[in-house]
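Hypothesis: this fold can be encoded by more than one sequence.
Test: take the structure tokens below, design a sequence, compare later.
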């Protein structure tokens, strides 16, 4: 049978790639990403699964007369953290997909 060895080799390569991808996803899930706003006055920490796990707000930024500013800072820091998760995820998983255009 011609090509049988090539098919087996390709299947083994695919299985290895699946294992490597699963490991990379596990490692990403364990990482944390920090987003900041207001020069570090608000810090939001997300994990690799895009879950917010911590919010830190410096006392100086809390102004009861300007809640809108604080809300904007929290929103900006959250978006910054999630953007970082997305960037690292795309970089990490992109090495496996190489142009396949698969969502993660």
């Amino acid at each position: 049978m011609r090509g049988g060895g090539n098919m087996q080799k390709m299947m083994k390569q695919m299985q290895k790639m699946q294992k490597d991808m699963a490991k990379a996803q596990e490692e990403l899930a364990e990482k944390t990403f920090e987003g900041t706003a207001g020069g570090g006055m608000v810090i939001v920490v997300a994990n690799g699964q895009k879950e917010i796990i911590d919010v830190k707000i410096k006392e100086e930024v809390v102004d009861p007369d300007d809640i809108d500013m604080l809300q904007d800072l929290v929103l900006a820091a959250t978006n910054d953290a999630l953007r970082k998760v997305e960037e690292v995820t795309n970089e990490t998983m992109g090495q496996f997909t190489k142009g396949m255009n698969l969502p993660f």
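The chain has a mean pLDDT of 89. The longest strand covers residues 32-37.
Hypothesis status: open.
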